[in-house]
Design goal:
Layout lengths: L1 H20 L4 H20 L18 E6 L5 E5 L7 H16 L3 H16 L3 H16 L4 H11 E3 L12 H10 L1 H12 L13 H29 L1
Antiparallel strand pairs: 1-2, 2-3
């Protein structure tokens, strides 16, 4: 009995809907069903849009801090803790520190040894001893600009320089900047001097004055070697 009443109610609703919607077009109904099926199929075939996440900003494994900005707009950085220096840079810094300690770099030392050998082979004992004296003077100097600037190239990074490198890849660029920016040169000469053993032997404010006064003495050895090379070339 309940089912009969439910069926009657359903039929009455269908009649009411038909009165408001009008006659049902069977062909139109089939067409709508086909369109709906087609769109549903295309939606399944269409690949989902893959949204690439924004790349996270790379963070350096080293703690660096900016220490100077030169007149050309370059940024110079240093390691917050020098114990964090990568092996390649630490080795280069150790070698540069030795050169700074003896006030002579490997290149000039090799030239000096070759010149002394040549003088001795030619019997020029006095000339050879003259060079030995110049070397002795250098060993007694407290500091020398070229070796201190080479030391600076190891401890300080320029702009986006790779910390894991030895620092030699940007050495030429750094030296060119420091040759053309007196204030930056003075700043890094003072800072580099702090890495040498002679730092405790002289006041920090006196180092620049001393380096300026000793510049002719520091250049003398290189001038002597250059003159001897020129003389030997002319003789040949």
């Amino acid at each position: 009995m309940a089912n009969v009443k439910a069926n009657q109610r359903k039929k009455r609703l269908q009649i009411v809907n038909a009165l408001f919607e009008g006659p049902v077009d069977i062909n139109q109904t089939k067409q709508k069903a086909m369109i709906h099926k087609l769109f549903k199929k295309k939606a399944k075939e269409q690949p989902e849009e893959v949204i690439n996440p924004e790349p996270e900003e790379e963070q350096s494994e080293f703690n660096l801090r900016t220490v100077y900005k030169d007149k050309f707009g370059n940024t110079w950085k240093e390691f917050e803790n020098n114990l964090d220096l990568p092996a390649s840079r630490a080795i280069a810094a150790e070698i540069a520190a030795k050169h700074a300690e003896f006030n002579i770099d490997a290149e000039l030392l090799k030239e000096m040894i070759a010149t002394i050998k040549n003088d001795l082979n030619q019997g020029k004992i006095v000339d050879a001893f003259h060079l030995f004296e110049e070397i002795e003077i250098r060993l007694e100097m407290i500091g020398e600009e070229k070796t201190l600037l080479d030391l600076c190239c190891c401890y300080y990074l320029l702009n986006d320089e790779e910390p894991n490198s030895s620092g030699q890849s940007t050495r030429k660029e750094k030296l060119e900047i420091l040759d053309n920016d007196f204030a930056a040169r003075s700043f890094f000469l003072q800072r580099s001097f702090e890495f040498t053993k002679n730092f405790s032997n002289i006041l920090e404010e006196d180092i620049l004055k001393f380096l300026k006064e000793q510049r002719p003495v520091a250049n003398r050895l290189q001038d002597l070697i250059s003159k001897k090379k020129s003389r030997n070339t002319l003789i040949r």
